[in-house]
Amino acid sequence: MSEPASAEVLIALRSALEAQVASNDPPETAVTLARLRREGVAEDTVWRLLSAALLQELSLVVGDARPFDRAGYTAALLRLPELTDRK
Asked: Global pTM?
């Protein structure tokens, strides 16, 4: 991402991530949240990393006019805190 996300986008991403954790869908969101916390990652950084993974996937959906790639998204979550560009 070259430009920082707006406050509204960050709020929407956090809300979506919290819903994923609450519904355990996909379970990798909650797993990654717990793992990053256990690893001592600061709470605000944890949510920024999760948001980055979701925003990256959503950017591909919009930019490439393609369906949400659940497998790609969950793989990105499991790689955090490393986040590599996906195409």
From this structure: 0.89
